[in-house]
Amino acid sequence: MSARKRILAPGLVPVVGEWEEQPDAAVLGELQNELRLVADVDARRPAKPEEWREAVRSANIIAGPPRTDRAFLTAANELEMLQTFGIGYDQIDVEACTNGGIIVCNVGEVYSEPVAQHAWAMILALSKQVVRADRAMRSATWRKHDWRGMQLWGKTLGVLGLGGIGGRIALKGWMAFNMRVIACDPYVLPARAQLYGAELVNMDKLFSESDVLVVSLPLTKATRHLVAGSQLSLMKKTAVLVNVCRGPIVDQDSLVKCLRDGVISGAGLDVFEAEPLPEDSPLLKMENVVLTPHIASSTVEAVDETYRGAVNNIIDYLEGRRPSWIVNPEAYGKRVH
Predict the structure, then answer these.
(1) Which residues are annotated as catalytic?
(2) pLDDT above 70: residue 1
(3) Whole domain around residue 100: which residue ranges?
């Protein structure tokens, strides 16, 4: 009989004293117990680098990995799999993992719907000046300023990245608001784009023709600061930009300048280059910006489903089945061959 695998599960440790996007403690305990049926589970959250080095030395799987770079991996001699509890995996050096035969898995689709809904909450708030009007009401004034909004019906929605999130954003614009939908994504075929009512275009056309432009890309070396001043300067003065994926995809300094100078009308941001957003950020004082603290994916249903999906993925791997949502299938190929 082969030795039981060892799982280091910091992502299943309840966080006390501060908010974190997790199921409640009872659900986390239940998921730990499910893993204990098939492996030895180390349910702790190391705090110091030396504690991490000791914890990962004999771990075969890490559930909820921290920032994982080459230096981290040098201590993880037995590591086979990293499983995140969400879509993003930009904290993981995937290339180094692949070279070492370490499988990286996320939970690819569960968060797509709540993030798409959040994007639309921001679009609607911006188009109808909801946040500014709410602030005025709360300051005990009944002022009807020139807060005329932008009617979305028939306008052009641009989607940068037509994956699970972007596709749902596009579909809602097409079906609910009769919008013309254009999208830029080199990995999507025209036939798939048509399922979302979208026409594939190049970057310049996307930025110059969109009335609403939503960024829904993963953060990679290629997408960091992909949206910068040169693209923003192509946009209509009446247009708005929404980013619900990763902050560094947008050059934040360029965006602030464009918002100040009236190059674009407004922005909705759930993600930022530095998180938490610094208290001296100029974005906090801008009336034409709607801000939320990286909560686009946060619904009770999605968080529970994501954690259950991640644990089931680990169990599949341990029981000899191909896990879902493999980011680097080359690494899995090395393990099964």
Answers:
(1) 246, 275, 294
(2) no
(3) 6-110+299-332
